[in-house]
Amino acid sequence: MKKELVVSGDEKGIVICWWYNRNDTHHFFPEPRTIFCLSCSPHNENQVAVGYKDGMIVIIDINRKGEVIHRLRGHDGEIHFLSWCPQLCEPQFLSDATSDTLGLNGELMTEDTAKDCFLASGSRDQTIRIWNATKGKGRFHFPAEMVFILFLVNFFP
Fold first, then answer.
1. Among residues 103, 124, 99, 120, which one has the least CA distance to residue 111?
2. pLDDT band at residue 143, thresholds of 50, 70 and 90?
3. Distance, CA of 66 to chain centre
4. Residues 6 or more apart from 140 whose CB is under 8 A from it?
5. Which helix (H) or strand (E) covers residue 155, if one does?
6. What letters, b where the CB count within 10 A reaches 16 and e where it falls short, cover 83-109?
7. Alpha carbons 37 and 34: distance in angstroms, whole number
8. CATH 2.130.10.10 fits 5-89+117-155, yes or no
9. What whole-number distance in Å separates Cα of residue 52 and Cα of residue 103?
């Protein structure tokens, strides 16, 4: 994937994309909310996850004028981080298996070729949530203390 894009957001809810290799910028206004963080998908160069101060997360398509693909609701405080899973995963991973699904480019994929994107989010509400970003559904949520304990157990035996 090309790394020629810089994305930023502001307190008014405006997302600015700058392709520095061609000195081109585009502005999008997906939601009238204060942006707290954002993250570009490693799997689809047109998708950006945007976290807002009120706990809302949206995934937008910058190739479609900032069209909102999914609204992810579940956090009660501002979103402090968004992190995409670096690999596409089988539909059975953290999700209910289905026979057919739409891929990242909108093409129908069969069960044996379908892969889903997952997104992790952390919030001031002291929870971490795992989302299926392909389907726009929450899969798990954990209290932050539990994640810290799991980190200690796994990395400092």
1. 99
2. confident
3. 14
4. 94, 129, 130
5. helix 144-155
6. ebbeebbebeeebeeeeebeebeeeeb
7. 9
8. yes
9. 26
| Contacts (Cβ under 8 Å, ≥6 apart) of 69 | 47, 58, 59, 60, 61, 136
Place of tokens 């996850």: 49
Q: Is the pTM of this model over 0.85?
A: no
Q: CB within 8 A of 149, min separation 6: which ones?
A: none
The residues pairing with 37 across neighbouring beta strands, listed in sequence order, are 51
**Helix (H) / strand (E) containing 77:** none
DSSP H or E segment with residue 33: none
Token pair for 148:
């810290």
Domain-wise residue ranges, the chain: 5-89+117-155
Q: Which pLDDT tens digit goes with each residue over 70-123? A: 999 999 999 999 999 877 776 555 444 343 444 444 444 444 456 888 898 989
Residue 64, token pair as written in the block: 């479609």
